[in-house]
From TrEMBL:
Any coiled-coil regions, as ranges: 67-101
Coiled coil found in the keyword field: yes
Keywords from the UniProt entry: Cell cycle, Cell division, Coiled coil, Membrane, Transmembrane, Transmembrane helix
GO BP: any one term: cell division
Organism the protein comes from: Orenia metallireducens
Residue stretches spanning the membrane: 41-61
KW tRNA processing (keyword) present: no
InterPro entries found in the cross-reference section: DivIC, FtsL/DivIC
One Pfam family linked to the record: DivIC
Top-level lineage group: Bacteria
Protein name, per record: Cell division protein FtsB/cell division protein DivIC
Amino acid sequence: MTLVMKKELILHLALIRWDSIMENYNIRRQKKKKPSKSIKLRRLVVIIVLFCFSAILYNFYQGNQEKEVMEARVLALQDEISKLKSSKEDLKEQIEHINSKGFIEKIAREELGLVKKGEILYIIVDE
């Protein structure tokens, strides 16, 4: 074997070895490659679903708080309504009492000094 042939053989073996090294490098590199489009799409879908779920939970929580506030307000208004109804009944009784003949006659006698027909009014004078 000549020196040139030996050099060519060594060069050929070096190229084969280089190809093997590059092939291993490419295999490792492919494993570390960026995620494919389908993986990116899945991640995007998961993020969107999580965002939507969070928004729904937030709205549910807000709605629940508003419901509790409204229920408390309804209870307060119902209490106020019952107090006003009671006051209304008391005022109706007072109106009936004031419009009764006996009360009108009492006021006419005591405050206005009126008498019925045939009655005599006596005025007591203090000394």
